[in-house]
Structures are given as C-alpha cells and as structure tokens.
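TICKET #2291
ISSUE: user wants both folds in one file
ATTACHMENT 1:
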Amino acid sequence: MDRTKTCPPECGSGLGLTGAYHPPMCRQLLNALIALVLVITLPLAPAEAAMDYAKQVLIGADFADRDMQGVTFNLTNLREANLSGSNLQGASLYGAKLQDADFSNSNLRDATLDSAVLEGTDLTNAVLEDAFAFNTRFINVKISGADFTNVPVRGDVLKSLCAAAEGTNPVTGRETRDTLGC
C-alpha cells in the first residue's frame, strides 16, 4: 500500500511543490513561508527614541519639531543647534554644551540638564517641568514664558533667572516667575 500522496493545491502545489508529501511536513512548510512573509512585510518601528548622540559634535544641527523622547545627548556639543518645538521629554543632556542653542517651544519635561552649559540659550515658552538642572549653568538665557515647575536649581542661579523671568507659558498657563518661586 502506497502511503505517499500528491500535494494538494492548498498545500503549495501552486508554488511548484508537487509530488510526494506528508501532511505534517506540508503544514510546517506553509507555516515557515507565512512567517517569512510576515517578517519581510511588517514595517519596522522608528528607533529614534532610543538614539544615543552622546559625546558627539553636533554644532548647528537641526532637530527642530522632532519627537526625541528619551534621546541621550550626554557631553554632546550642541552649540547653535536648533531643537525648537521638539519633544525632548525624558531626554538626557548631562554635561551638554548648549551655547546659543534654540529650545524655544520645546518639551523638556523630566529631562536631565545637570552640568549642562546654557549660555545665550533660547528657552522661550519651553516646558522644563520636573527636569533636573541643579548644577546647570544658565548664563544670559532667554526664559520668557518658560515653565520651571519642580526644577531644582542652585540659589545663585535662581537669583539670576528670577531677574530675567517674565511671561506665561502657552502650554501650561503658568507664569515663569511663579514656576521659579521668585
């Protein structure tokens, strides 16, 4: 008695897989083909949130209006970079050089700015709520409308920020002076 059969159409004979077959092997072959097709055709998710730009020189880089949640810019030179309108929530800018960088209208909630150098940096209307900035250098920064709610800063820095504080943040509705505790 011959136990081999001809491969029926539903098992792949349309793919040139004719001849003797065994039903379990046919199912395994079809499952493997389906898995391969799915792997090839599924779109890849963007990995920008996991980007690491640490220790790079990105002078004048343009990151405007981008979703950069959780991105790492530790010890990165971002002098004159444009990050306006970007979502940098949870980003790490530890020790970054941010001279003359534009962070206007950016979301810096929960960001780490400790030991960063902000000199001439534009923080107009930025939301820094719950950011960590205790050892951050703020020199001649533009903070009109910025929200510093729950941002720890040194006393000497607070004094200079309060001298420049004005405006209301358009996102949170909070006055800059109030968020600094001036």
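ATTACHMENT 2:
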Amino acid sequence: MAYIGVSPSNGTRRVHTYTATASQTTFSGAGAEGATLSYKDSNFVDVYQNGVKLGDADYTATSGTSIVLGTGATVSDLVVIVVYDVFSVADTVSKADGGTFDGNVTMAGTLDVTGASTLTGALSAKGGAVFNEDSADVDFRVEGNNSANLLFVDGGNDHICMNTSTDAGGVLNIKTTDNTANLVLFCTDADDSGGPILDLFRNSSSPADGDVLGLIRFKGEDAGSNETTYAQIIGFIQDEAGGAEDGTLKIETLIGGSSQSRVDMTSTETVFNEGSQNIDFRVESDGNANMLFVDGGNNSVGLGSSSPDSGRKLHIEGGDTTVGITLKDTAGTQFGINSDDNALKVKSDSSGAELMRIDSSGNLLFNLTNRLFSDTSNTINASVNGSSVLRLNRGADAGTVVQIGLVGTSQGTISISGTTVSYNAFSGSHWSRFTDNSKPTILKGTIIETIDEMCDWYQLEFEVEVEGKNETVKRSYALQDGDNVGDTVTYKHEGSDYTATIVKEDDNKHTKCKISDTADSKRVYGVHADWDNDDDTVNDMYVTAVGTHVVRINKDVTVTAGDLLSSNGDGTAKVQDDDIIRSKTIGKVLTNIKQETYSDGSYTVPCALYCG
C-alpha cells in the first residue's frame, strides 16, 4: 500500500552541519552528516549559526541545493541547516497489482520474466542475448513496418525465414512479393582487393575427385505445377591432389525435358555443347548479329552468316560486297584474302597491295586487277615489270618442267636436261583469218595458203575504278560497219556500262588466208589445226607451220615415210615430185600410218612441217 514520506528509509527531518571559513556566505553539498543538501520548499528550512536560529531575512534559500547568508560567517562558525520535507505519496510499483515505470530502470542482478514481454522502445542487450535457451519448439518473430514476419525463426523446423513465415525448404528462406532483389551483398572497401565475396565452401575432411563443391539451381514450375530445375551451375573437384588441384565448372539447362551441358570448363579445355545437341552457338558484334555462328545441326561454322552453306565447314560472309581474312605478324606485315567486286583477292604488306585475284569469270590474275586479254574463259593472267613473268625451276635433277594434257591425258611436255630445253611434241602455229571473217567447217590437216591481206584486231579501251584507282582495261572487239578507230561505244563490263574507245592492236605479222587451191603453191602457210574458240567476236584460226602435226592427204595419193609433200590444189597434199626441200614444200611424212580418214576419202598422217 502507499505510505507517507520521501522513501521508506528516510524521515521528514534532515540535518546538514557545516564549519564556516572566513567570510563564507554560501553553504551546499554534503555536511558533516555526509548527506547532500537539497530541499523542495524554502519554507521548510531552518538555519542556525552558532546555535542561534536565523530569521528569513538573514539568508536566501531559493536554489534547492544551497543556503546563502546575508552576512559572511566568521572562521569556525557552526552553521546547521535543518530541512523538513513535505508529505507525498511514494512512487512505487505494487508487487501484487503491478504498474508502470515511467522512468529508466536499472538492475544490477538478473531479470527473469515468465510471461510474455512487450517492449515499446528499443532493446539493447550489451552482454549478448539468448532466445529459447531451453530449445523448446517455439518461434521467434520480428515485425517490420509493412511485414508481420520481417524475421521469422521457425523453432520446430530449425529454419530461418525473412519476410515470410512459410518454410520453403531452405535453412534460410527469403521472400519478395515483387521483382526487387532478395539478397544484396555490398562492400564499401575502396582498395583494389575483391569484394563483396560469396563463398560456397564444402568443408569435407575426405575430398575426392568428382565431388560436387556447390550447386546453384534456377527453378520454376512446369505446366503441371511441378517444381522444375530449368538451369544450374555446378562446381566439381577435378583433381584434389595437393599442389596439382584442378576444378571444373558446368552450366546446364533443360533441353526437351533433359538436363544438358551447355558449357564445361575443365583444366584442359572449355567445351560448348558437350552433349552434342542440335543447338547453335552465336557471337554477336556491334554491327553483326552473327559475327560467329556454329550451326549445330549442319556441323558448319558461319562468320557473318546464320545460315552457312550446306556441306561447307566454314562459310564467311561479309557486309555489302566485302568479305576477307587478314593474317598479320607483330612486325606489321600482313597477308589478306578478300572477296569484293565479285572477286577473290590476295593482298600483302601494310599498303594492302593486291598480289593475286580470281575474278568473277574464273580468271586467275597475278599482279593484275583485270585480265589482260579479251577471252572470258578460265585463264591465268600475270604481269610484272623488270623481271620474268613466270619462273619454273626443277631441282637438281633433269626431267619434265611443264606437262600439258587434254581430258586428263598428257599431250606434251617442256623438259630440261643439262642446259637444253626441249619442247616435246612441238607444233608451231600462227593466227590467221578468212577475208570474210567466216567460220566454216575445216578438216584438220587441210592445206592453207596466205593471201595479200593482213589480220587487223581491234579493242575497246576504257577506265575501271579499282579500290579508288583508275585502271585501263582492254577488250577484243569486232569492227562493225561504220566503226572507225577513235569512236566511242557503250560496253558492259562485269555488270556495269562503260564508255569505251575503239583502238587498233599493234600487230603487223599475221596475214589472212584461204584453203589452198593451187597445186604446188609456194604460198603454203601450213595446215589447219583448229579455230580460236576463246574469242567469239573474231573468227581466228590456228595454222600450224612447223613442228610435228598431221597433214591431210588426197584420197588418191599413197605416201611413205620420208616423202616430201606439196599442195594438191584442193586443200589436200600430194607427194612432191622431187626430194629437195623447196618453197612449195609443206613437210616430210613421218609414217604412212593413217590417223584419221574423212568421208571424202582423204586421210591424215603425222608429218614434220617446214612451212614456218
């Protein structure tokens, strides 16, 4: 029950005795009794000086902790102050009925609370705190401003939940209801060391090769609401031997319901698609979505292409009209292969000078950007100044240097023995043409005569821009009626139209011809070998004049080896009337073995020609 007084241990009267110093006026603090002077009301204070009670006018009592004399005391005066406290109800809490502490409470001993505790203010446990010391099946919960379970300790399952009281199966379960981060690790250290750091530590006392060190699984539900691992990252011990430790990291995803390796990083290799699945690998650059593309289904690689040509192991595709490969060493020397202007180009040195190209017509060009001649078939063109255009060398031994064939069969060679070069199965031919530029059927070996007309060849000359530079290109041209040298015409070259000028070729040694119509003619040029089918604008033929070739013999003439031949006047040959080589002599029969017999009865035999 309540009681009267300041406290249960003090009465209503307190005495404070002080021995004065010279002229002392203020008295406060602890007196001779040891109690510190304090009072609530100056009306309940009596002051005595050397046993005489002072009146109210002789001192001042206003501060509550000191008395000030109006006149300073004399040395050794005895000043006694008696304080009388007013009546008040004690401020205590009932043991039986309880109550509220409005001020701070300090306890030196142990506080045991049997019932529930509600703390409105902050809780500070400087010496540490233990909850559920007796390991009972009880939970611990901390509320947040908007979460009833900001921290929830599940005592029964020995799990910890954050922002939820639902145990999701982990020792630590963290829940969000939106797309904010569940867990953030951050480090404020400003040095160059790593941080923040997340360790997955398998603290095994008996590690072994193949042990799984850690697993990060990415889970979701399937259409049947089944919890499914769609992707995972796994770390393994590859080799646990001290000083030779190796690790493996795998990234796996579901493919068709089965977990398949996408990336394997071992001590010796990094493998993509170890399971050989029909999946592609693609690397994107700033301007190309398929800078590197591995076609898993077709087993091919595309550079710049997502659809490599079927059956090609490597397909390179460039932007616009350019695609290329450059090989460069540390000295800056480079070797490049480029495909642009519908051509495959090989370049070298830092200036990018072109050394070789294969153009759109299949011509192989060395040190050229356009073919030299007018033909459009697959040819080899080479040009150089101040040196040999073609160098062929055999090692230390003699033998064939060049082999020439037809349909896979060797027809002739150029060989060397010592310092002698031999042209084997040699036939020397000249260009010629009929006066009307016609192209009739002529039997091989037919005798040909010259006429008093020269073969003139014309070309179209125009400029082509190649990599920023203009180059002069010439193409064969058949002069049309009304055309003159110096005229300009429109010419289509590799898909583009050019203005070309008609020019005449510089040639002054080839005459036109006719089929021999004069017996024993001294104008025999040689025998017909073939038409020059490489150029369809002018009907040129090859007339063989020296070397070995077949000669067409009249059906009524019989020849033997060693016979000299002359013109029969009908395109065939006959046996010359003497054995002296003359201006009319075509050649000498090498054998009477017929090579071919024609429908008119004429036939061919091998001969050594003397017309050239």
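RESOLUTION: both attachments delivered.
EXTRA DETAIL ON ATTACHMENT 2: The chain has a mean pLDDT of 86.
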